[in-house]
Amino acid sequence: MDLLEPFSTRVDLREGLLGNGVHRLSRRISDMRGMFQDEQAWAEIAAQGDPLVYEVFVAPAPESEGHLCHGVTVLHPGRVGDEYFMTKGHYHQKSGTAEVYYGLRGNGLMMLQTRWGIWRTVDIAPGTVVYVPPHWGHRSINTADEPLVLLFAYPGDAGHDYGTIESSGFARLIVARNGRPTLVENPSYTAEDPG
Ligand code: M6P
Ligand code: ZN
Prior knowledge:
Elements: E1 10-12, E2 16-18, E3 23-28, H1 39-47, E4 52-58, E5 68-75, E6 79-80, E7 83-84, E8 91-92, E9 99-105, E10 108-113, E11 119-124, E12 129-132, E13 137-142, E14 148-155, E15 160-161, H2 163-168, E16 172-177, E17 180-185
Antiparallel strand pairs: 1-2, 3-4, 4-5, 5-14, 6-7, 8-15, 9-12, 9-14, 10-11, 10-13, 16-17
């Protein structure tokens, strides 16, 4: 039997997850080509400073069956045009795997969607636990003026499928209207054919 040594990591609400072996991934505006509706606004922001949109800090748990990948996402505040900063969003490669999120700081929402276009939103704030059931694609959106910090955990063998969201997007967008987060239809969304 492969026995992994127990370990802990520490969450800092500004710096993310801290500890030995924490892996840090950053996505800037330039890494998110095609994800925001207003392409001109995206190109201007990418050319003028290319700010950090989010960072993911992953604890050193193996990405394999039986383990729980876990970590912290720090999603910075900001907008591209009137669309709030968000994560790329993904389905799990192993579609029948779930995920849990716990809100640590800030305010925002999770956008969830099935491949056939059923969609839901769930608010997330400090103290909120969001359950993402199997088969739902998911994206986090920061609707506030401070970082949205989320703890997450999912099965180690879940994997990330980005292709579906990259090519079809989500059915709804969250945009600022009169300063308030508002749900609008995504004109470029295409659902998969249920067959
Ligand atoms: C969550 C988790 C991570 C994921 C991160 C960023 O914290 O689901 O697995 O990597 O969000 O989202 P994305 O991978 O969609 O860019
Ligand atoms: Zn996930």
